[in-house]
Request: fold
Amino acid sequence: MSLRATIVAVLWMVLSGVASAQTHPDLSGYWELTYLDSQHVPRAQLSPRVTRAVLDAQAKKDFKAVRWCNMLGMPAIMASPRPLDIRQTDRMMAIAAEVNAATRYIYLNRAAHISKDIFDPTTNGDSIGRWDGDTLVVDTIGFDPDKGLTAIPGGGFRTANSHLVERYRLLNNGSLLSVTFTWTDPGVYRTPHTYEFRYSRLPRDYEARLPVGCDPFDEGRTAFLTRGGGSR
Amino acid sequence: MAVMRFALAALGMAALVLNAPAALNAQGPPDGVRALEGGWVRLDTSGSGNFGGLTAGFARAVLTPEGAAKIKPQRDPDDVDPDERPHKAGEPYIVTQGRCGVGGPGAIEPNSAAFFIVPTRDEVLIVREGPGGRHVYADGREHPPLSRIVPSGAGHSTAKWEEGDLVIDTVGLTEGAVTAGGWRTPETHVTERYHVAADGVHMRITFTWTDAKIYARPHSYAFEFERLPADGYAFENWCDSGDPLQRQSVVPPVQLP
Reply:
Protein backbone atom coordinates (compact mmCIF):
# COMPACT_ATOMS: atom_id res chain seq x y z
CA MET A 1 0.00 0.00 0.00
CA SER A 2 1.40 3.40 -0.95
CA LEU A 3 1.92 6.11 1.66
CA ARG A 4 -0.90 8.12 0.09
CA ALA A 5 -3.29 5.17 0.29
CA THR A 6 -2.28 4.54 3.89
CA ILE A 7 -2.97 8.17 4.83
CA VAL A 8 -6.37 8.03 3.12
CA ALA A 9 -7.23 4.79 4.92
CA VAL A 10 -6.20 6.16 8.33
CA LEU A 11 -8.11 9.39 7.68
CA TRP A 12 -11.23 7.43 6.67
CA MET A 13 -11.05 5.35 9.86
CA VAL A 14 -10.61 8.46 12.01
CA LEU A 15 -13.45 10.31 10.29
CA SER A 16 -15.85 7.37 10.40
CA GLY A 17 -15.02 6.82 14.07
CA VAL A 18 -15.79 10.45 14.88
CA ALA A 19 -18.96 10.27 12.85
CA SER A 20 -20.24 7.19 14.67
CA ALA A 21 -19.44 8.77 18.02
CA GLN A 22 -21.29 11.97 17.21
CA THR A 23 -24.30 10.99 15.20
CA HIS A 24 -26.63 9.73 17.92
CA PRO A 25 -29.72 11.90 17.76
CA ASP A 26 -30.59 13.89 20.86
CA LEU A 27 -34.11 12.98 21.91
CA SER A 28 -34.14 15.56 24.72
CA GLY A 29 -37.20 17.76 24.86
CA TYR A 30 -40.87 17.87 25.73
CA TRP A 31 -42.98 15.45 23.71
CA GLU A 32 -46.73 15.13 23.52
CA LEU A 33 -49.13 12.65 21.96
CA THR A 34 -51.19 14.76 19.64
CA TYR A 35 -54.14 12.37 19.27
CA LEU A 36 -54.16 13.23 15.59
CA ASP A 37 -53.09 10.02 13.93
CA SER A 38 -50.53 9.58 16.69
CA GLN A 39 -51.42 6.11 17.94
CA HIS A 40 -51.29 3.08 15.68
CA VAL A 41 -52.47 0.20 17.85
CA PRO A 42 -53.66 -3.09 16.34
CA ARG A 43 -55.67 -5.58 18.36
CA ALA A 44 -53.36 -7.94 20.24
CA GLN A 45 -53.37 -11.68 19.56
CA LEU A 46 -53.95 -13.00 23.04
CA SER A 47 -52.96 -16.44 24.23
CA PRO A 48 -55.84 -18.90 24.73
CA ARG A 49 -54.89 -18.89 28.40
CA VAL A 50 -56.05 -15.29 28.66
CA THR A 51 -59.72 -16.00 29.26
CA ARG A 52 -62.47 -13.53 30.03
CA ALA A 53 -62.08 -14.39 33.70
CA VAL A 54 -58.35 -13.60 33.57
CA LEU A 55 -59.05 -10.26 31.86
CA ASP A 56 -61.74 -9.41 34.40
CA ALA A 57 -59.42 -10.16 37.30
CA GLN A 58 -56.72 -7.99 35.76
CA ALA A 59 -59.19 -5.17 35.15
CA LYS A 60 -60.19 -5.35 38.80
CA LYS A 61 -56.55 -4.94 39.86
CA ASP A 62 -56.12 -2.01 37.49
CA PHE A 63 -59.25 -0.37 38.84
CA LYS A 64 -57.85 -0.63 42.36
CA ALA A 65 -54.65 1.04 41.17
CA VAL A 66 -56.62 3.96 39.75
CA ARG A 67 -58.97 4.12 42.73
CA TRP A 68 -56.07 4.45 45.16
CA CYS A 69 -53.93 6.78 43.03
CA ASN A 70 -51.13 4.25 42.68
CA MET A 71 -48.16 5.10 40.49
CA LEU A 72 -49.16 4.05 36.98
CA GLY A 73 -45.90 2.71 35.54
CA MET A 74 -45.38 1.20 32.10
CA PRO A 75 -46.95 1.30 29.62
CA ALA A 76 -49.43 3.89 30.91
CA ILE A 77 -46.73 6.53 31.45
CA MET A 78 -45.97 6.54 27.72
CA ALA A 79 -49.66 7.18 26.97
CA SER A 80 -49.75 10.19 29.27
CA PRO A 81 -52.22 12.86 28.17
CA ARG A 82 -49.67 15.44 29.32
CA PRO A 83 -46.23 16.03 27.76
CA LEU A 84 -43.30 13.80 28.62
CA ASP A 85 -39.98 15.42 29.53
CA ILE A 86 -37.29 13.28 27.94
CA ARG A 87 -33.70 14.11 28.85
CA GLN A 88 -30.84 12.22 27.33
CA THR A 89 -27.14 12.14 28.05
CA ASP A 90 -24.68 9.58 26.76
CA ARG A 91 -25.10 7.51 29.92
CA MET A 92 -28.79 7.75 30.67
CA MET A 93 -32.17 8.79 29.40
CA ALA A 94 -34.84 9.88 31.88
CA ILE A 95 -38.54 10.19 31.07
CA ALA A 96 -40.50 12.30 33.54
CA ALA A 97 -44.28 12.59 33.26
CA GLU A 98 -46.78 15.10 34.57
CA VAL A 99 -48.95 12.24 35.81
CA ASN A 100 -48.55 10.04 38.85
CA ALA A 101 -45.86 7.72 37.53
CA ALA A 102 -42.32 7.10 38.68
CA THR A 103 -39.68 8.56 36.40
CA ARG A 104 -38.38 6.07 33.85
CA TYR A 105 -34.62 5.56 33.85
CA ILE A 106 -33.10 4.05 30.71
CA TYR A 107 -29.46 3.17 31.20
CA LEU A 108 -27.33 3.67 28.11
CA ASN A 109 -24.09 2.71 29.84
CA ARG A 110 -24.70 -0.94 30.57
CA ALA A 111 -25.44 -3.82 28.24
CA ALA A 112 -26.99 -6.24 30.71
CA HIS A 113 -30.01 -6.08 32.96
CA ILE A 114 -29.65 -5.97 36.72
CA SER A 115 -29.57 -9.53 38.01
CA LYS A 116 -33.00 -10.89 38.85
CA ASP A 117 -31.49 -12.00 42.14
CA ILE A 118 -31.20 -8.42 43.33
CA PHE A 119 -33.66 -6.38 41.26
CA ASP A 120 -36.99 -5.79 42.96
CA PRO A 121 -39.62 -5.68 40.20
CA THR A 122 -41.09 -2.22 39.61
CA THR A 123 -43.92 -0.60 37.69
CA ASN A 124 -41.42 0.57 35.06
CA GLY A 125 -39.04 -2.40 35.07
CA ASP A 126 -35.32 -2.30 34.36
CA SER A 127 -34.53 -0.56 31.06
CA ILE A 128 -31.29 -0.58 29.10
CA GLY A 129 -30.75 1.14 25.77
CA ARG A 130 -28.38 0.87 22.83
CA TRP A 131 -28.14 2.70 19.54
CA ASP A 132 -28.91 0.92 16.29
CA GLY A 133 -27.93 3.63 13.81
CA ASP A 134 -30.30 6.52 14.45
CA THR A 135 -32.69 4.39 16.46
CA LEU A 136 -32.51 3.98 20.22
CA VAL A 137 -33.49 0.43 21.12
CA VAL A 138 -34.69 0.07 24.71
CA ASP A 139 -35.04 -3.36 26.30
CA THR A 140 -37.09 -3.71 29.50
CA ILE A 141 -37.81 -6.59 31.86
CA GLY A 142 -38.43 -6.76 35.60
CA PHE A 143 -42.04 -5.59 35.70
CA ASP A 144 -44.10 -5.94 38.83
CA PRO A 145 -47.36 -7.67 37.86
CA ASP A 146 -49.26 -6.40 40.88
CA LYS A 147 -48.41 -2.71 41.00
CA GLY A 148 -49.69 0.15 38.93
CA LEU A 149 -51.79 0.11 35.79
CA THR A 150 -50.89 -3.07 33.89
CA ALA A 151 -53.13 -2.80 30.81
CA ILE A 152 -51.34 -2.70 27.47
CA PRO A 153 -52.81 -0.75 24.51
CA GLY A 154 -54.48 -3.14 22.08
CA GLY A 155 -55.15 -5.77 24.72
CA GLY A 156 -53.30 -7.80 27.29
CA PHE A 157 -51.39 -6.74 30.37
CA ARG A 158 -47.88 -6.81 31.73
CA THR A 159 -46.73 -9.65 33.95
CA ALA A 160 -43.48 -10.63 35.66
CA ASN A 161 -42.52 -12.41 32.43
CA SER A 162 -43.22 -9.54 30.07
CA HIS A 163 -40.41 -8.36 27.80
CA LEU A 164 -40.70 -5.00 26.11
CA VAL A 165 -38.56 -3.66 23.27
CA GLU A 166 -39.04 -0.03 22.28
CA ARG A 167 -37.52 1.66 19.24
CA TYR A 168 -37.18 5.47 19.44
CA ARG A 169 -36.45 7.43 16.29
CA LEU A 170 -36.87 11.02 15.21
CA LEU A 171 -38.96 11.82 12.16
CA ASN A 172 -39.82 14.89 10.17
CA ASN A 173 -36.60 16.76 10.85
CA GLY A 174 -36.79 16.06 14.58
CA SER A 175 -40.27 17.44 15.11
CA LEU A 176 -41.80 13.99 15.64
CA LEU A 177 -40.69 11.12 17.84
CA SER A 178 -41.81 7.65 16.82
CA VAL A 179 -41.78 4.96 19.48
CA THR A 180 -42.69 1.40 18.54
CA PHE A 181 -43.47 -0.92 21.42
CA THR A 182 -43.17 -4.68 21.06
CA TRP A 183 -44.38 -6.83 23.94
CA THR A 184 -43.60 -10.50 24.17
CA ASP A 185 -45.01 -12.67 26.92
CA PRO A 186 -45.89 -16.28 26.20
CA GLY A 187 -48.44 -16.27 29.01
CA VAL A 188 -50.33 -13.35 27.46
CA TYR A 189 -49.62 -13.11 23.73
CA ARG A 190 -49.72 -15.64 20.92
CA THR A 191 -47.44 -13.47 18.83
CA PRO A 192 -45.38 -10.39 19.73
CA HIS A 193 -47.69 -7.39 20.09
CA THR A 194 -46.40 -4.27 18.35
CA TYR A 195 -47.87 -0.79 18.21
CA GLU A 196 -46.57 2.71 17.56
CA PHE A 197 -47.03 6.06 19.26
CA ARG A 198 -45.94 9.33 17.69
CA TYR A 199 -45.14 12.35 19.81
CA SER A 200 -44.87 15.96 18.69
CA ARG A 201 -42.00 18.09 19.95
CA LEU A 202 -43.23 21.05 21.96
CA PRO A 203 -41.72 24.53 21.55
CA ARG A 204 -38.48 25.12 23.43
CA ASP A 205 -40.13 27.61 25.75
CA TYR A 206 -42.65 25.05 27.02
CA GLU A 207 -42.62 24.81 30.81
CA ALA A 208 -43.73 21.72 32.69
CA ARG A 209 -46.99 22.13 34.55
CA LEU A 210 -47.75 20.86 38.02
CA PRO A 211 -48.42 17.13 37.99
CA VAL A 212 -52.00 15.97 37.73
CA GLY A 213 -53.18 15.62 41.32
CA CYS A 214 -54.86 12.51 42.64
CA ASP A 215 -56.34 12.26 46.13
CA PRO A 216 -57.35 8.75 47.14
CA PHE A 217 -59.42 10.17 50.00
CA ASP A 218 -61.42 12.55 47.82
CA GLU A 219 -64.92 11.25 48.41
CA GLY A 220 -66.35 12.88 45.29
CA ARG A 221 -63.72 11.25 43.11
CA THR A 222 -64.25 7.89 44.75
CA ALA A 223 -68.01 8.14 44.28
CA PHE A 224 -67.54 9.08 40.62
CA LEU A 225 -65.28 6.08 40.02
CA THR A 226 -67.40 3.53 41.82
CA ARG A 227 -70.70 4.83 40.49
CA GLY A 228 -69.46 3.88 37.02
CA GLY A 229 -69.86 0.22 37.91
CA GLY A 230 -66.19 -0.48 38.57
CA SER A 231 -65.14 -2.96 41.19
CA ARG A 232 -64.32 -1.76 44.64
CA MET B 1 7.25 16.44 -1.59
CA ALA B 2 3.78 16.07 -3.08
CA VAL B 3 3.08 13.18 -0.72
CA MET B 4 4.26 15.29 2.22
CA ARG B 5 1.91 18.15 1.21
CA PHE B 6 -0.93 15.65 0.85
CA ALA B 7 -0.14 14.22 4.30
CA LEU B 8 -0.12 17.69 5.89
CA ALA B 9 -3.40 18.57 4.19
CA ALA B 10 -4.93 15.30 5.37
CA LEU B 11 -3.74 15.84 8.93
CA GLY B 12 -5.10 19.38 8.85
CA MET B 13 -8.49 18.10 7.73
CA ALA B 14 -8.41 15.45 10.45
CA ALA B 15 -7.60 18.10 13.06
CA LEU B 16 -10.55 20.18 11.90
CA VAL B 17 -12.91 17.23 12.13
CA LEU B 18 -11.55 16.09 15.48
CA ASN B 19 -12.10 19.57 16.84
CA ALA B 20 -15.70 19.57 15.68
CA PRO B 21 -16.99 17.69 18.74
CA ALA B 22 -15.48 20.38 20.94
CA ALA B 23 -17.29 23.00 18.91
CA LEU B 24 -20.52 21.05 19.22
CA ASN B 25 -20.03 20.68 22.95
CA ALA B 26 -19.52 24.41 23.24
CA GLN B 27 -23.22 24.77 22.45
CA GLY B 28 -24.12 22.37 25.22
CA PRO B 29 -23.57 22.43 28.96
CA PRO B 30 -20.01 23.00 30.19
CA ASP B 31 -17.58 20.50 31.68
CA GLY B 32 -19.26 20.46 35.06
CA VAL B 33 -22.05 18.46 33.47
CA ARG B 34 -20.09 15.23 33.32
CA ALA B 35 -19.16 15.57 36.97
CA LEU B 36 -22.69 16.36 38.07
CA GLU B 37 -24.56 13.80 35.98
CA GLY B 38 -25.80 10.66 37.71
CA GLY B 39 -27.21 9.40 40.97
CA TRP B 40 -26.47 10.88 44.39
CA VAL B 41 -27.36 10.03 47.94
CA ARG B 42 -27.24 12.34 50.96
CA LEU B 43 -24.56 11.83 53.59
CA ASP B 44 -25.79 12.73 57.02
CA THR B 45 -22.45 13.92 58.28
CA SER B 46 -23.62 16.36 60.90
CA GLY B 47 -25.90 14.30 63.08
CA SER B 48 -27.74 11.06 63.53
CA GLY B 49 -30.09 9.35 65.92
CA ASN B 50 -32.96 11.73 65.27
CA PHE B 51 -34.19 14.01 62.51
CA GLY B 52 -33.15 17.14 64.35
CA GLY B 53 -29.58 15.91 64.62
CA LEU B 54 -29.05 16.27 60.91
CA THR B 55 -29.48 20.01 60.93
CA ALA B 56 -28.51 20.78 64.52
CA GLY B 57 -25.13 22.11 63.40
CA PHE B 58 -26.58 24.58 60.90
CA ALA B 59 -26.52 28.28 61.71
CA ARG B 60 -30.04 29.38 62.63
CA ALA B 61 -31.80 31.81 60.36
CA VAL B 62 -31.61 35.45 61.41
CA LEU B 63 -35.07 36.85 60.79
CA THR B 64 -36.47 40.33 60.47
CA PRO B 65 -39.34 41.16 62.85
CA GLU B 66 -41.73 40.71 59.93
CA GLY B 67 -40.15 37.34 59.14
CA ALA B 68 -40.32 36.21 62.77
CA ALA B 69 -44.01 37.09 62.84
CA LYS B 70 -44.67 34.77 59.92
CA ILE B 71 -43.29 31.68 61.64
CA LYS B 72 -46.01 29.33 62.73
CA PRO B 73 -45.99 25.69 63.67
CA GLN B 74 -46.46 23.36 60.76
CA ARG B 75 -47.41 19.77 60.67
CA ASP B 76 -47.58 17.24 57.95
CA PRO B 77 -51.18 17.19 56.66
CA ASP B 78 -50.87 13.43 56.52
CA ASP B 79 -50.07 13.27 60.25
CA VAL B 80 -53.05 11.88 62.12
CA ASP B 81 -51.72 11.52 65.66
CA PRO B 82 -55.11 12.20 67.25
CA ASP B 83 -54.28 13.30 70.76
CA GLU B 84 -50.87 14.92 70.38
CA ARG B 85 -49.61 13.67 73.68
CA PRO B 86 -46.43 11.76 74.46
CA HIS B 87 -46.88 8.05 74.08
CA LYS B 88 -45.55 5.51 76.52
CA ALA B 89 -43.02 2.94 75.49
CA GLY B 90 -44.84 0.04 73.89
CA GLU B 91 -48.04 2.01 73.25
CA PRO B 92 -48.76 1.94 69.49
CA TYR B 93 -50.35 4.86 67.72
CA ILE B 94 -51.20 5.76 64.14
CA VAL B 95 -49.02 8.45 62.57
CA THR B 96 -50.19 8.69 58.98
CA GLN B 97 -53.27 8.33 56.84
CA GLY B 98 -51.15 6.72 54.15
CA ARG B 99 -52.03 9.43 51.67
CA CYS B 100 -50.09 8.98 48.41
CA GLY B 101 -50.08 10.86 45.17
CA VAL B 102 -50.85 14.29 46.54
CA GLY B 103 -48.74 17.38 46.54
CA GLY B 104 -46.65 17.04 43.44
CA PRO B 105 -42.89 16.83 43.35
CA GLY B 106 -42.24 17.60 46.97
CA ALA B 107 -39.68 19.81 48.58
CA ILE B 108 -36.52 20.90 46.85
CA GLU B 109 -34.17 19.56 49.53
CA PRO B 110 -33.18 15.97 48.75
CA ASN B 111 -34.32 13.49 51.36
CA SER B 112 -32.56 10.27 52.29
CA ALA B 113 -33.55 8.54 49.04
CA ALA B 114 -31.25 8.75 46.05
CA PHE B 115 -31.85 11.39 43.41
CA PHE B 116 -30.59 11.75 39.87
CA ILE B 117 -29.30 14.76 37.95
CA VAL B 118 -29.73 14.66 34.17
CA PRO B 119 -28.12 17.80 32.73
CA THR B 120 -28.81 18.66 29.10
CA ARG B 121 -28.25 21.76 27.01
CA ASP B 122 -31.52 23.51 27.78
CA GLU B 123 -32.62 21.94 31.02
CA VAL B 124 -31.34 20.11 34.06
CA LEU B 125 -33.80 17.45 35.16
CA ILE B 126 -33.57 16.48 38.82
CA VAL B 127 -35.59 13.40 39.62
CA ARG B 128 -36.11 11.06 42.51
CA GLU B 129 -37.12 7.44 42.86
CA GLY B 130 -40.78 8.21 42.35
CA PRO B 131 -43.10 10.55 40.45
CA GLY B 132 -42.43 14.13 39.47
CA GLY B 133 -39.22 16.01 39.12
CA ARG B 134 -37.63 19.41 39.05
CA HIS B 135 -37.39 20.97 35.62
CA VAL B 136 -34.56 23.50 35.90
CA TYR B 137 -34.32 25.73 32.85
CA ALA B 138 -30.74 26.36 31.80
CA ASP B 139 -31.35 28.13 28.50
CA GLY B 140 -31.03 31.66 29.81
CA ARG B 141 -34.72 32.33 30.39
CA GLU B 142 -35.91 34.44 33.30
CA HIS B 143 -38.51 33.59 35.92
CA PRO B 144 -42.00 34.57 34.80
CA PRO B 145 -43.80 37.19 36.90
CA LEU B 146 -44.93 35.73 40.22
CA SER B 147 -48.51 36.38 39.19
CA ARG B 148 -48.09 33.70 36.53
CA ILE B 149 -46.58 31.06 38.82
CA VAL B 150 -48.74 28.61 40.73
CA PRO B 151 -46.77 28.14 43.97
CA SER B 152 -45.59 24.58 44.42
CA GLY B 153 -43.08 22.47 46.29
CA ALA B 154 -40.66 22.78 43.37
CA GLY B 155 -41.29 26.41 42.43
CA HIS B 156 -39.86 27.84 39.22
CA SER B 157 -36.14 27.24 38.72
CA THR B 158 -33.56 28.65 36.36
CA ALA B 159 -29.88 27.76 36.29
CA LYS B 160 -26.51 28.88 35.08
CA TRP B 161 -23.02 27.39 35.23
CA GLU B 162 -20.32 29.16 37.23
CA GLU B 163 -16.80 27.74 37.19
CA GLY B 164 -18.10 24.19 36.83
CA ASP B 165 -20.76 24.61 39.54
CA LEU B 166 -24.44 24.48 38.74
CA VAL B 167 -26.21 27.44 40.34
CA ILE B 168 -30.01 27.21 40.53
CA ASP B 169 -32.29 30.08 41.46
CA THR B 170 -35.84 29.27 42.52
CA VAL B 171 -38.94 31.32 43.33
CA GLY B 172 -42.62 30.44 43.51
CA LEU B 173 -42.40 28.00 46.40
CA THR B 174 -45.41 27.37 48.58
CA GLU B 175 -45.33 29.22 51.89
CA GLY B 176 -43.81 27.20 54.68
CA ALA B 177 -40.91 26.40 56.95
CA VAL B 178 -37.27 26.37 55.88
CA THR B 179 -34.52 24.29 57.44
CA ALA B 180 -32.85 25.78 60.53
CA GLY B 181 -35.52 28.25 61.53
CA GLY B 182 -36.28 29.93 58.23
CA TRP B 183 -39.48 30.70 56.41
CA ARG B 184 -40.41 31.12 52.78
CA THR B 185 -43.13 32.63 50.66
CA PRO B 186 -43.54 32.49 46.88
CA GLU B 187 -41.44 35.69 46.65
CA THR B 188 -38.48 34.20 48.50
CA HIS B 189 -35.43 33.28 46.42
CA VAL B 190 -33.42 30.19 47.19
CA THR B 191 -30.10 29.68 45.45
CA GLU B 192 -28.57 26.23 45.29
CA ARG B 193 -24.92 25.79 44.35
CA TYR B 194 -24.01 22.25 43.26
CA HIS B 195 -20.28 21.73 43.64
CA VAL B 196 -18.66 18.40 42.84
CA ALA B 197 -15.37 17.76 44.66
CA ALA B 198 -12.19 17.05 42.73
CA ASP B 199 -12.56 13.35 43.53
CA GLY B 200 -15.77 13.29 41.46
CA VAL B 201 -17.44 11.25 44.17
CA HIS B 202 -18.57 13.85 46.65
CA MET B 203 -20.86 16.81 46.13
CA ARG B 204 -22.00 19.70 48.28
CA ILE B 205 -25.23 21.59 47.73
CA THR B 206 -25.27 24.96 49.44
CA PHE B 207 -28.70 26.48 49.97
CA THR B 208 -28.97 30.24 50.43
CA TRP B 209 -32.33 31.85 51.14
CA THR B 210 -32.82 35.56 50.53
CA ASP B 211 -35.88 37.67 51.13
CA ALA B 212 -35.57 41.17 52.57
CA LYS B 213 -38.96 40.83 54.24
CA ILE B 214 -37.99 37.64 56.09
CA TYR B 215 -34.23 37.44 56.52
CA ALA B 216 -31.95 40.02 58.14
CA ARG B 217 -29.15 38.41 56.20
CA PRO B 218 -28.98 35.51 53.73
CA HIS B 219 -29.69 32.20 55.40
CA SER B 220 -27.27 29.52 54.27
CA TYR B 221 -26.48 25.86 54.98
CA ALA B 222 -25.16 22.89 53.06
CA PHE B 223 -25.77 19.17 52.62
CA GLU B 224 -23.17 16.66 51.53
CA PHE B 225 -23.74 13.88 49.01
CA GLU B 226 -21.96 10.84 47.65
CA ARG B 227 -22.20 9.52 44.10
CA LEU B 228 -23.98 6.22 43.62
CA PRO B 229 -21.66 3.42 42.49
CA ALA B 230 -21.22 3.03 38.74
CA ASP B 231 -23.52 0.00 38.75
CA GLY B 232 -26.11 1.74 40.94
CA TYR B 233 -29.62 2.25 39.70
CA ALA B 234 -32.82 3.97 40.78
CA PHE B 235 -35.18 2.14 43.06
CA GLU B 236 -38.91 2.81 42.97
CA ASN B 237 -40.49 4.14 46.14
CA TRP B 238 -43.84 2.45 46.31
CA CYS B 239 -46.77 3.94 48.20
CA ASP B 240 -50.30 2.52 48.21
CA SER B 241 -53.01 4.39 50.05
CA GLY B 242 -55.24 1.33 49.63
CA ASP B 243 -52.88 -0.84 51.65
CA PRO B 244 -53.74 -0.78 55.38
CA LEU B 245 -50.06 -1.30 56.16
CA GLN B 246 -49.40 2.13 54.67
CA ARG B 247 -51.08 3.60 57.72
CA GLN B 248 -48.25 2.42 59.87
CA SER B 249 -48.30 2.53 63.61
CA VAL B 250 -45.39 3.58 65.72
CA VAL B 251 -44.51 1.76 68.89
CA PRO B 252 -42.14 4.00 70.85
CA PRO B 253 -39.20 2.01 72.15
CA VAL B 254 -38.05 2.14 75.74
CA GLN B 255 -35.65 5.07 76.00
CA LEU B 256 -32.26 4.51 77.50
CA PRO B 257 -31.45 6.78 80.42
About this structure: Chain B touches chain A through 55 residues (CB under 8 Å). Helices of chain B lie at 2-26, 32-36, 51-55, 65-70.
